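debug: dumping io for the single-chain case to check the tokenizer round-trip. Nothing else runs in this session.
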Amino acid sequence: MMQTCLQSLIETCVSTAIGFIVALGAQVFITHWFGIRTSLHQDVGIVVFFTFISLLRGYLIRRTFNWLHGRSTPGDIQG
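debug: decoded output
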């Protein structure tokens, strides 16, 4: 069964929120482990930046695959 647009949006938001929390924890741990002292405000800023890049990357990859799928010919292998 396919997801509705709302279900896809909710799944994406939940996944991104969980990823953000995991990335923030990793950011705090890794910077302090390497002796790089940052404030929580700086850690959040860094994670927001990389979260934005990740969302953009995921969107562009999804759109590219949709575009490629739309270009396929009837004889192509479909998944």
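debug: round-trip ok. The CA atoms of residues 12 and 67 lie 21 Å apart.
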